[in-house]
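**User:** My hope is that you can spare some time for a protein that puzzles me. As I understand it, each token names a local backbone shape. I would be glad if you read both lines and explained how they fit together. The protein I mean follows directly.
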Amino acid sequence: MEQKITFIGAGSTIFMKNILGDVLQYPALQNSKIALMDIDETRLNESEIVAHKLVETLGLHANIETYSQQRAALDGADFVVVCFQIGGYDPCTITDFEVPKKYGLRQTIADTLGVGGIMRGLRTVPHLWSLCEDMRSVCPNAIMLQYVNPMAINTWAIGARYPDIRQVGLCHSVQGTAEELARDLKIDVSDMRYRAGGINHMAFYLELEGRDTLGKWRDLYPLLHQGYAQKQIPVATGANPRCPNLIRYEVMKHFGLFVTESSEHFAEYVPWFIKSHRPDLIDRFKVPLDEYPKRCEEQLADWKDQVVQFRSAEKIEVRQSHEYAAQIINAVVTNTPAVIYGNIPNQGYIPQLPEGCAVEVPCLVDALGIRPTCVGDIPPQLIALMRTNINVQELTVQALLTENRDFIYHAAMLDPHTAAELDLDQIRSLVDELLIEHSNWLPKWLQNTRAA
């Protein structure tokens, strides 16, 4: 049976290429109907070219259609891949970095937590809610595969207002970090197995084992602790040479387990590594301040060359990525069970965390859909650490649900990194300035308004 897979935000061409390339390598999905939707006509046209060349490279007959209207693209969809960024790098991401800098607040990624994550959530959730409204009308049984940050805020907000929408928030941090740890330990990732749980960008490997030469499984944590203590790991080159994972190993040293998200992300979720009065910490832990703008500039520069190559190429290289989307679609369509890590509204899946918050847990996927499993053995110190981030997520979601501006201030005031750097008056002033700067991208109740 032909499946319709809709990409909302298909102008993210490289991401679309990776997911579609994965999809088209599954036999059951090779005749799918692919709907590409974006509001940027130029980027949509570029993505259409790439999608057609992927199909031609693989010698398939998948049908590619493009749309500028969301509801039309969603009509009859079986799966909806969401990958948009409201406000884009310029101006909104630039604003999220430059305005806090005036207050002495420095960030690394600013898309998940902190004032940058809060602002992105305020910009993003209303558009996700509009997507849910359209899905209710034209594809109520479709599964939303949501790749948008701030993942936890988005997932929580969708579950709170649209509990009927079948959704999962997807990230590559769990499987991506496993590859990094295998590199550090100089073993093949296929000889590693693990179990993780927590919240997006703050889940931890509760079990981490490697297979020895005799085929027996052994705990890898002693090797990680020993390697870090002896300064043999992390290795000098990694996924991001600008930030060689010192922060995550330091957190493991003090809290016991290894976190699934990168050091550059994790630096701004906690109060210990970015301090304006402690430049020695920045140097010691190689904290890459302003990392996300640097990546965006590099990607924009690279894209100018890539788009020329894509236009002129007769064939496009197709590689299997480590994203979960295609695995999920194939598992549902063929009833071939798969296990993925997904972000789901908490319904007792992590009993130590609040109901409704977004949790990241192992999920079984088959013809019945996405079925989360329970993770009940997270150590209390890690639950406490997660709660410091959940506080910010919850207050941001409450601001959106109730249209109460006060919750935005409270979210920023309780953010671990922001609170470690600024006083209450500074935080209030910073939030006001960011809301004004972002006015055109925010919901109407926040547009062109100042605090009383």
